[in-house]
Design a protein that fits this description.
Blueprint: H1 2-17, E1 27-30, H2 61-73, E2 80-85, H3 86-109, H4 120-127, H5 134-145, H6 151-155, E3 161-166, H7 172-180, E4 188-189, E5 192-195, E6 198-202, E7 213-215, E8 221-227, E9 246-252, E10 260-272, E11 275-283, E12 287-288, E13 295-296, H8 297-308, E14 315-324, E15 337-345, H9 352-365, H10 367-375, E16 382-385, H11 390-398, E17 407-408, H12 410-418
Parallel strand pairs: 1-2, 2-3, 3-4, 14-17, 15-16
Antiparallel strand pairs: 5-6, 6-7, 7-11, 8-9, 9-10, 10-11, 12-13, 14-15
Helix pairs in contact: 2-3, 3-5, 3-7, 8-9, 9-10
GO molecular function, one term: acid-amino acid ligase activity
InterPro entries: GH3, GH3_C, GH3_M
GO cellular component, one term: cytoplasm
């Protein structure tokens, strides 16, 4: 019932804002869900979606996204392009960039090329849904040959909106990149707010650039701990929230479940019919702290973006950071420090002076970190450039249809280095 309420609200908002959005077969889905299709709408809707249900359940993420991309490309009259995560849409469009001649050939012949993760019996079933379309294949070749800025709207000229199931937190970097390049000129709508696996709110404002969510009172039992917390701080309820203040979310999602801190910090941006409207600010669990300096992940990202702005021609694609004291021969002996792996566009190498800019930005932005660096109790940050596609491979290696953490455990990184996912 809860998912049904959320789905109906989402579809009603979509129809009211974009009148043609619910045209039959007018939606395409790019999402990997090996346990079964879960569109942002909450259930499979075959009359609306041109994407076959079976495609999202393929055993490998890359295969699922490529097959779904083929079915999306053949539908020129697409109205809505959906993805479960911003990273999924980014990776699917990355496949388009690198494989557009082969994708156009598949459409021209009405076939699916063999690939890892696409069993032959499933390939036959999915291929039977295709028909040769030389005209559409020629359109795709022509648009891709002219570059990829604004490619989404050029490939689907009737597209009204891009819907992403999750586009805040760790996914915000990809959402911003999509908005600036591939999806330029289109609204990006994040319809739902989830926390700790529970559906808590819905976004009623699909055309606004920053997603904010109406908290629905009967979807879960929510309490709020004022932030920053004091020793005598008590939780407050929905009706006691103040506009402009930040709160930690305390959640009891269903009857009989434990009451817990969800690890989410929210800012109240206003009220809609007496219900609070919130904007997710950060996750408490994503904090860097080798000596107790406690740098929130989103503020680390801000420092990193500031450093990237000092590297002429560079654009940040993605990154991960590891609190490191035990990497041994892979990093050299050192005091506890950060190992940062970044993927850039527009720049192939960095000088030592450029690499130091990130450590310098962190010292300027976080006095505690600067103090520990001055004392020598935190060693110099080490910055590593990784090749194009490294983070796509990382998402494949982690193998979970959920946002990739930006802060990795050291043992995770060692495994990825040994597996040549990151080098």
């Amino acid at each position: 019932p809860l998912l049904a309420q959320g789905s109906l609200l989402y579809l009603d908002v979509l129809r009211a804002t974009f009148p043609q959005a619910l045209a039959p077969q007018g939606m395409a889905l790019l999402s990997w869900a090996p346990s079964g299709l879960r569109a942002p709408a909450g259930w499979p809707l075959p009359t609306l979606y041109c994407s076959p249900d079976e495609a999202s359940t393929l055993p490998l993420r890359a295969a699922a996204l490529r097959v779904q991309l083929v079915f999306a490309l053949r539908q020129r009259a697409l109205r809505v392009l959906e993805a479960g995560l911003a990273a999924e849409l980014h990776d699917a469009l990355g496949t388009l960039r690198s494989e557009w001649p082969a994708l156009a050939q598949d459409l021209a012949l009405g076939r699916l090329s063999p690939q890892p993760g696409l069993p032959e019996d499933m390939r036959d079933r999915l291929q039977a849904l295709l028909a040769p379309d030389a005209v559409r294949a020629a359109e795709i070749r022509a648009e891709c040959a002219h570059g990829f800025e604004g490619i989404v709207q050029r490939l689907w000229p009737q597209l009204e909106v891009v819907v992403i199931g999750m586009a805040h937190g760790a996914e915000k970097l990809y959402r911003d990149a999509l908005h600036q390049a591939d999806c330029k000129g289109l609204p990006i709508y994040c319809p739902f707010y989830w926390a700790a696996g529970a559906l808590l709110g819905v976004n009623l404002w699909p055309e606004e650039p920053v997603p904010r969510f109406l908290l629905c009172p009967d979807w879960a039992f929510c309490e709020f701990l004022p932030c920053p917390a004091k020793e005598d701080s008590q939780t407050v309820l929905l009706g006691e929230l103040w506009e402009g203040r930040e709160y930690r979310l305390v959640l009891t999602a269903r009857p009989g479940e434990y009451r817990c801190l969800a690890g989410e910090v929210l800012r109240v941006t206003g009220f809609h019919k007496q219900c609070p409207v919130v904007e997710p600010v950060r996750r408490d669990s994503q904090v860097l702290s080798v000596r107790g300096e406690s740098i929130p992940e989103e503020r680390f990202c801000q420092s990193l973006c500031r450093a990237v702005g000092m590297w002429p021609g560079a654009r940040l694609v993605d990154y991960v950071c590891v609190e490191s004291a035990l990497l041994g021969t892979s990093s050299g002996a050192s005091a506890p420090h950060y190992e940062v792996f970044v993927e850039l566009q527009g720049l192939r190498d960095l000088s030592e002076g450029q690499r130091y800019k990130l450590d310098q930005c962190l010292q300027e932005d976080f006095p505690t970190y600067k103090s520990f660096r001055f004392k020598g109790s935190i060693g110099p940050l080490r910055l590593h450039l990784v090749g194009a596609g490294a983070f796509t491979r990382l998402r494949e290696a982690l193998g979970a249809p959920c946002p990739m953490p930006r802060v990795l455990r050291e043992e995770q990184l060692l495994h990825l280095i040994q597996s040549n996912v990151i080098s």
